[in-house]
Fold each of these.
Amino acid sequence: MTVQIITIDGPSGSGKGTLAAKLAEHYQFHLLDSGALYRLLGLSLRNKQLLDQLDTQLEQCVHIASQLNIQFLTTEQGIKVLLDNEDVSQEIRTEEVGAFASKVAAVPEFRAALLQRQRNFAQAPGLVADGRDMATSIFPEAQAKIYLTASAQSRAERRVNQLQAMGLDVKISDILANIIARDKRDMEREVAPLKPADDAYIIDSSELNIDEVFKLMTTYVDQQLAK
Ligand code: DC
């Protein structure tokens, strides 16, 4: 039986995570949050005081990447993420860990070390994979490829709302600067840069709410999966 794959790529704050989870629930597919893998790797290397030694300790760091002890547990409150059996669900969502992730994600050896782990998520009946290079490098065979984007300003506003809901005190100017810097790094890196696949369906969510984006996505995905 073929495993049906839906990819959602795009910059941070475009709403990918929320929509990927909604699509996975709607189609009863598995879910891969690939950004979480880079966040977990960044956090693990920081905890081992290796994040500033990537150049000199690369071999050891790549070994750690290939052996990462992580679990994604589905709970009533959502997905719980464990690193070395410790719940880091909240910690990996911070801006700080986002910056660690962006740093490790630019290193080709880490991307290679995480490749097979990502492909292993493709299990019957299907998978919704959320990231930056899901359609362009990890699952080029996907039946449905979505590229979800939004203006930097609207992404910054959404991020501020999310962080404030977590009880964090943040300034929009800082968040906007982070978003612009991270976009630049993600789009300009040599390996697997953020860009739409040639056959991707592109959605700009700047002026749309979640339900409107979800409707566009399911209309497209239904067509693709029926082919
Ligand atoms: O989607 P996110 O914000 O959790 O991603 C964290 C970082 O990891 C971000 O800088 C981009 C990078 N990333 C990547 O390079 N490739 C992916 N497939 C997913 C995330």
Note: The longest strand covers residues 4-9.
Amino acid sequence: MKQSIAIDGPAGAGKSTVAKRIAQILNIPYLDTGAMYRTVAVAAKRHGIDFADEDAIARLVGMIDVRVRHEDGVQHMLLDGDDVTGELRTEEISQGASLVSRVPAVRDRMTELQREVAHETRVVMDGRDICTNVLPDTPYKFFVTASAEERANRRVKQLLESGQPADYETILHDIIRRDKQDTERAYKPLFCGEDTKKIDTTDLTIEEAVNAILSEV
Ligand code: DC
């Protein structure tokens, strides 16, 4: 296995922005593993399955085909051959992904797919359990975080800039709820391991966070 770069952290901490920049600079692919869990949530929605129905979700993941494809450097998600990339970034699917990702059968299947990618090529991978579970043997492990308030502020700014409505209190509430689910789930929760370098981006620019990682790699 080549020495990939693993980045974990809570929702909205800037992981994916930082991970994409690093992948670009090192000229290696970037794998957004959250998009894979989001694809399972889209599948549940299409099959009319409640995100919280763990038995039904476990059965579902054994029946669907989830694939990652890179086109011109952009990651696309395929669900049973359908490109669902455009359906992944809604609040409903964010919440759904956080719920379906609690199911061990879902996590084990996604972990398998993620390891297949890292086995083929050196990658930058971001998610919630990459350092602790998917690629525990890589020497390059980072936990990118920021305060919940700062993450909510950034999201508000991002939404307003793209012309969408944004309510700070609602966004902060959603972030805190997702943090709780992701860190308190029984199976492979989000946490920063002892051998992982923690980078708090609350007072850092993207460039500073990127450099903090690059100086270690
Ligand atoms: O990174 P994201 O916001 O796209 O992830 C969506 C949800 O998927 C997140 O709330 C928890 C889950 N997830 C996970 O459990 N493990 C990963 N490696 C990536 C995401």
Note: The pocket of 2'-deoxycytidine-5'-monophosphate is lined by residues 11, 33-34, 37-38, 94, 97-98, 101, 127-130, 178, 182 (CB under 6 Å).
